[in-house]
Amino acid sequence: MDTFFEFFSFADPNIRYVVIGSLLLTASSAIVGSFTFLKKKALVGDAVAHSVLPGVCLSFILYGEKNPIILILGAFATGWLSLILIDIISSKSKIKEDTAIGLILSVFFGIGIFMLTIIQKSGNAAQTGLDQILFGKAASLVGNDLIAFAVIAAILILSVWFFFKEFTLLAFDEDFASTIGLPVRGIELLLTTLTVLAVVIGIQAVGVVLMAAMLITPAAAARFWTEKITTMVWLAAIFGAFSGLTGAYISYIAPSMPTGPWIVVVISTIAFISFFMAPRRGILYRLNNQRKIKKQINDENILKVLYQLGEEEKNFYEKRTIEEILSKRKFVPVALKSGLKRLKREGYLKNDNGYWSFTRAGKHKGQRTVKLHRLWELYLTQYLRIAPDHVHDDADTIEHILTPELEARLEKLLNYPTMDPHQSEIPYR
Amino acid sequence: MIKHVDNPVLEVHDLTVSYDRKPVLWDIDLTLPAGKLIGIVGPNGAGKSTLIKSVMGLTPNSSGYVKLFDKDLKQVRDRISYVPQRESVDWDFPASALDVVLMGRYGKLGLFKRPRKADRDIAIDSLRKVGMEAYAGRQISQLSGGQQQRVFLARALAQQADLYFMDEPFAGVDAATEKAIIEILREMSAKGNTVIVVHHDLQSVTQYFDWVILLNMRLVASGPTSEAFTTELLQETYGGKLTLLSDVGDLIRRERFPNREQFEKIPKGK
Question: Where is the Iron dependent repressor metal binding and dimerisation domain (chain A) (predicted)?
């Protein structure tokens, strides 16, 4: 716990640097990655991430020490080259884009690992720590490195801020963007460059192997929570920054631990939570919604049966036993009992020593369901020319979904009919 | 029956367009009058969408040129609006109906600038014209097909252009929407705008369009609907597939035959 407070008091300037660095790197890659995500180019991000490795190694071999600017330039060069090659291969040959991406990714990464091994065997003292580029090390974000990375992160964020409108349009409707005279090629080029830059600086914290997660996952998680692109990009930045902060903390308490996997675990957890919990798009919301609909159908069916029983005996407020209800329609006994209890709680039914009867509101609701059922049967026979003995099952479903607005339209269209196709009366008020 | 006009709003000269080297449109020569509601009609795969895409510079032309208002496309972009097919975009995009309509203002705004209040007013007004004002804030994936089409139409209106190209605006919309859209198109052409529509349904051609273009890999007819939309010309457009032409196109692709560009260096009089 002590280390926790020590870290989050940010008293140590080194800690401050590492924190600021991690936040900037992860947030800026998440922001740029939002557009990679919206353009459905997630795999391209992965290819670039792996392809920067040979560039880093090559510039180290040529320059002989770990100068951040030189390493960035090398990474940028091969990252870019990989994109151009993917583009050329998929447009000029029979090979499709996904194959081209797989090809380039493995070839570049393979060469990169090969070079890295050579460097490590060379005995050059300056090479220590170069292997951290594989899985990232946030703690090494100090001094000159930090300044270089921060400048690039600032460039990324500002570019997205300036070109937000153009990037959005390009991601949504490229043809239209082109017809209004937007320099589509140029903007595409810019976005690609930004993606490569985001990867190049992001690898410091996350490493080449897992960098793609840092580009795509924050945006994918954010998409669950919002339908507004500005909110989505902000959320992605916050999610990214939060995972970056965790990575920095891990790096501080366990210096030998690579930070990349930790950052990815955190951001993936956020994505999973979003996947399950988010309103509207989340799994739990959908399941819950399904359960609600099931309950509604069950309850409306109970009221419908009670109404039909009342119709037969011309006495709607008679007390009924569970057996009477079951004689009219098959219910799962548990569902029937919980439905009856719920309807009582909601004020649609009364219970007297095991006998169930309508309240006024209950009778009205049961009547409406019966009415909708019969109206829909009539609609099907009249407008879809379906045989009267085939319309019942359809109507059994549709009666639960019709809104009051559709109900009114249906009544008007059929001109307030009194009888359904089976000569049962359609009950109005 | 190919009728040419003076001072055309669109002039297509000897246009050939290829996809992956296979020509899909052969030597189109076309001039269109201003202020008309114009339908492009032809069977599937006739190159109707390709024609307007090529005019809008979205597909490279193998040969020929296109003039709009007697100028190059680049000089008159802000007078022209293009409505792509509805299925060409992913409607599960984080944007509202209003956001999409505002995109119609981006051309006038230029780079960097954010939409101003005036642009917002124009966008809302466009939404009102297509009867979608109440849906301005609605997420676009929540809209029905017909409503999405209306949003695209509103985006075109927000461009305040003089010449409109629309790729199948009636595809997948209900009868009420179709009626509403054709009403708006009529209004636009009554105001002197030219509206060119790729259209599928032969039944409604005479009712909708002043001028009709019959297309099937080559131009069959272009003229006032009463003159060009005849049984004879329709038979020429739809009946008897040009299998020979299509086979030659396939051969060009299979053999990776030289493109038309290199062809042009051969002196004329072939």
Answer: 359-427
